[in-house]
Specification:
- This protein has 361 residues and is α/β, with parallel strands linked by helices.
- The protein has two domains: 170 residues, Rossmann fold (3-Layer(aba) Sandwich); 177 residues, no CATH class.
- Helices cover 62% and strands 8% of the residues.
- It has 14 helices and seven strands.
- Helix 3 links the parallel strand 4 and strand 5.
- Helix 1 runs parallel beside helix 6.
- About 5% of the residues have low confidence.
């Protein structure tokens, strides 16, 4: 069950698309049910970057690579003439990602051809598919005949992989974070940070690393706060949708960019805020797959309850514009104040004053 998992692993799902839509959906459902986070190329767009570069970034950010191999080789990348699933597979293996595959049985292919026609088998590159299949079968694999087999295989394998200590995943907080708690904790950590900097004031000005750390911290605060402002404006306009996953990824990318210049506590706290946003998007994805109308109201209520907690609303209608403006203003003010930008500016001035005193002596 998802509730017993202390950390959430991000699982990149790779497969051909048109012929395996039910199987991909089954995989997403199994990953969510196991308490983890699915990722795949259908969840986002490539933007200005090449498709393969975007794929590599998402594989890098994922903890586990899952390949669902059917009867098709898939569309090919123009330069290498290899299919995208083969390029994804080779890249994941080169990065030593936790890996497992669900490979279709030969007899299942025959049944699918009888039921769906020759569109479900490879016509243009059968030898390339045969070679790829042989490579994949040398590693951890489970055979499948229908979506039930895929769900069982994913549940079993993620249970094993989830116990690996070398996989970071998303740390799951004990309680759902909200903005006031986030601000209070940042204030406490900033105070401790300022006290430590005060103790090092005599040597900070002469240290290139200290000056670099100061500049990097300010740069991080500005970039993270700007992204928060932009993201909250988007969430207030579109509500609790799958867009929250993209926002969480964007914030996480900024935080990881400056990971060397943060304390562990600050990184963990901001990670919880990002995890809350990700959960909103993941639940929204799960909502799309729920077919039982009796289950939908409770899932919708849970999504918007998380949304209101993250945004700092008091369960008021989302169309309440003044409340939305206040929420943005308060959150940004808390971040700008409690990340310690003003405190660090004063600290740097004090460091220079102390250095001048030492020179005069």
């Amino acid at each position: 069950m998802a509730g017993f998992n202390p950390k959430k692993l991000q699982v990149f799902v790779s497969s051909t698309f048109d012929d395996l839509k039910p199987e991909r959906q089954a995989a997403v459902e199994a990953i969510l049910t196991a308490g983890h986070i699915p990722a795949g190329m259908e969840l986002f767009t490539a933007g200005d970057e090449s498709q393969m570069e975007v794929i590599k970034q998402w594989i890098d950010e994922s903890d586990v690579y899952l390949l669902i191999l059917g009867g098709r080789y898939g569309s090919t990348e123009p330069k290498t003439r290899k299919s995208y699933i083969q390029l994804e597979y080779e890249y994941a293996i080169s990065k030593s990602k936790a890996f497992f595959a669900c490979v279709i049985k030969d007899e299942a292919i025959e049944k699918r051809v009888k039921a769906q026609g020759r569109e479900v088998i490879e016509i243009e590159n059968p030898q390339k598919l045969k070679k790829l299949r042989a490579q994949v079968l040398t590693k951890a694999c489970k055979f499948w005949e229908d979506t039930k087999d895929i769900k069982i295989a994913i549940t079993e394998k993620l249970s094993q992989i989830g116990r690996r200590e070398d996989l970071t995943g998303w740390v799951r907080p004990n309680t759902q974070p909200n903005v006031p708690a986030l601000a209070d904790e940042i204030a406490r950590l900033s105070k401790e940070n300022a006290q430590l900097h005060s103790q090092l004031a005599a040597i900070a000005v002469s240290s290139h690393m200290a000056d670099t750390a100061f500049k990097k911290h300010v740069e991080f605060c500005e970039e993270y706060a700007a992204k928060i402002f932009e993201s909250l404006d988007t969430l207030i306009r579109v509500g609790a949708t799958a867009e929250a996953q993209k926002i969480a990824y964007g914030l996480s990318k900024i935080r990881r960019k400056f990971v060397l210049w943060q304390t562990e506590d600050v990184a963990l706290l901001l990670g919880r805020f990002e995890q809350a946003l990700w959960n909103i998007g993941a639940d929204n994805e799960l909502l799309q797959s729920v077919t039982d109308d009796s289950e939908r109201p409770e899932l919708i209520r849970r999504i918007y309850e998380k949304f209101n907690e993250v945004m700092g609303f008091e369960l008021k209608p989302l169309s309440d514009k003044p409340t939305s403006e206040i929420a943005i203003t308060n959150i940004i003010a808390c971040l700008q104040d409690h990340l310690g930008v003003s405190k660090l500016t004063n600290l740097r001035k004090n460091c220079l004053d102390e250095a001048v005193k030492e020179i005069k002596l």
